[in-house]
Amino acid sequence: MRVEVINPDFYSEAARLVIALLTCCHALSDGPHGTGRVSFAAMSKINLDSYFARIGYAGQSEPSVAVLRMLCALHPIAIPFENLDVIRGSGVRLDLSSVEQKLVGDRRGGYCFEQNGLFAAALEGLGFRVTPLAARVRWQVPAEVQMPLSHMVLRVDLEDVPWLADVGFGGLTPTAPLRLDVTDPQPTPHETFRIARSGGGYMLQAQLANEWNDVYRFTLEPQHPIDYEVANWFTSRHPTSRFVQNLIVARAGYDRERVSLMNQELVIRRESETEKRAVDTPEELLRVLADQFGLHFPSGTRFGAPGGVSPA
Hints:
Elements: H1 9-26, H2 48-55, H3 65-78, E1 81-82, H4 84-88, H5 96-105, H6 112-125, E2 129-137, E3 149-158, E4 161-165, E5 178-179, E6 186-187, E7 192-198, E8 201-208, E9 211-218, H7 225-237, H8 242-245, E10 248-252, E11 257-262, E12 265-270, E13 273-278, H9 282-293
Antiparallel strand pairs: 1-10, 2-3, 2-9, 3-4, 4-5, 6-7, 7-8, 8-9, 10-11, 11-12, 12-13
């Protein structure tokens, strides 16, 4: 008889999913009987003063279009998109207290589930009505390739107008909220976007070099914390995930600047100008992370291995 040995990590992962499912049950509704709307604020609250200090915001604390625009602009500049915990094999936790500690307290970055989870909690703390959604990434993906629901986005309803908010799409994060009820081009502090109807859903598109490019497809079906836990497991642990295979860091800058690091290539875009350079050593990688993205790690920290995705 052959005995199968189960990796003990399986149990911790399963436990996390069960906890997320139980948490989801408490996260529903505005009232005792529930409305089906997912509420991040119902799970726990974040310290808004600390969050505002982290992104450099000193404006009004009220649910308005002006405040939403300012937060969408400042968040991607201050908090970089990054998957360094995935590369290091330390895992990605999505409970709000862990996300707040990492992105605000520890001044780290994160990817979509962390970024938009924190942003949703901040918006709800200000009184915005937020519905978490999921998208299938189409950016630089061939049309015939099917993609999973692996990207988190937010719907924000304000004064009877639905908006799309997303502070976690790496080097193409929209730096302004986008109206969901119009199909016209919508400028942001960086690129111009539009939201096209796509079957029974929507397709976010970005205008680059005078061409419209698909970014991701989504519907208005609300998502729950357990949905993101499952997607996060695939994104952070499955060997075919691009976040497992590649080191990815990105941030928006002022004056339409975009800075991104993909494995060992640093790219800085300003308007129509693009600067590229190689990052060849572990020490140089740590300097780039600190100087370009505000991410500080102790001397001697290593990402990847010889022949891997980043300098060893």
